[in-house]
Design goal:
Strand order of the largest sheet: 6-2-1-7-8-9
Largest sheet: 6 strands, parallel
Number of helices: 14
Distance between the termini: 39 Å
Helix content: 40-55%
Oligomer: single chain
Radius of gyration: 20 Å
Number of strands: 9
Strand content: 5-15%
Shape: globular
Length: 330
Amino acid sequence: TQSTWGERLSIAMTVPQHLINEFQRGNVIAFVGAGFSATAGFPMWKDLLLNIATEAHHDKVLNSDIFETIQRVLSSATPSAHELDQAAQMIDDETHDPNSPHQSELVAYIRKFLVPQQLPLSPIMERRLALLRALPFKGILTTNFNPLIKGPTPFDPIAPDVYRAILRQDKAYQELSHINEKCLIASSTPEGLMYHQAQCPVMQVHGNLMNPESVVLTREGYRRLLYKCPNYSTFVKSCLSTRTALYMGFSFSDAYINELRSEIVSLVGNSENDPPVSFAIINDMSTTQSQFFLKHEGTHFLTFDTNGRKDWFGFNAILEELCERLGIKV
């Protein structure tokens, strides 16, 4: 008998067998957003931009009119992607030294705020990173540029090699030393962060702080990514159409990524009997919201209750279940 959307949703609250099967096939990519590392004390995008604007205003490189405009642009509880990149662009315009590389001053401010709030990291964050290192992803894509997950960016000369390693099966990843030595996931000690080689290729799709021009936060940053790295778009489309994505800590507010996701659903279809295109570990989603995303976006929500945003253990519990069902001891 054919399943209904409601019946399909009932299996989306824990880990569905289809996701386990996709891991066993080696066909899952992780898509890691800012929420993944929030328990380490890193600010989300709105708070990051407000912190930077406040600091730049205090340093007298951002005048009061611009500062107040940025505060208004970011005044809603959940600003849109358009509002976030507008605010970032305004900060960059005001702080940029024309004799410096693109975004150098903006990235210098970002570095001040993207530091762990405690060392060692909290046990819940430490465990989350260990689980990420252990799961057999085909690749990890992250929009973050905090220091917990490191990898090449679309601007790096080796980016096509990373794309090939994720999309094709030509060589074992362990043989690609020029890639895997740069793909790192952190753990911590009281003295600081230490890094472990990831088991799969990692791509920081929105750049890293070592290369200010690669950081995608402003409107101009998005344009540089799309038009200086045109094969990036093809790569992401290929990932989303041929691999099963597991979104983690991803807010679905990135307008460009959302447009690509819609394009892929249109390409591959999403009938009631089709397997999902993707999964998402996401907090506090209602049955109505979950059913909507399942029906119209092809995304199964693996949702958990944070008890009023006070308890984030449910995120780890889903990763723990994945490892247990895959027979992985961490």
